[in-house]
Prior knowledge:
Layout: E1 8-12, H1 19-30, E2 33-35, H2 37-44, H3 53-69, E3 74-78, H4 84-91
Parallel strand pairs: 1-3, 2-3
Helix pairs in contact: 2-3
Amino acid sequence: MHYKDKVLYIIAGANGSGKSTLAEVLLKEKNLVFLNADEIAKEIAPNAINSVPISAGKEYFKRLALYFRDDLSFAVESTLSGCSIMVMIMLR
């Protein structure tokens, strides 16, 4: 029996380096789910994304757990300024 490997794509770089632009292309090409706290904040409060960082962060980690549980391939965007991506990788 053949199992498809799940892949975590990490789109990383400094602010303004083109991560979001790359993400648009990669997501379409690979038909991926995109996990991004800024996009979640836009869903919660489209006209005031800076007012919901805690809610967006909680939803980010909730979705992250679901994607791992469901063995989905997906992409995240990061500046790699914290340790959350490293923890994410080590837990899987």
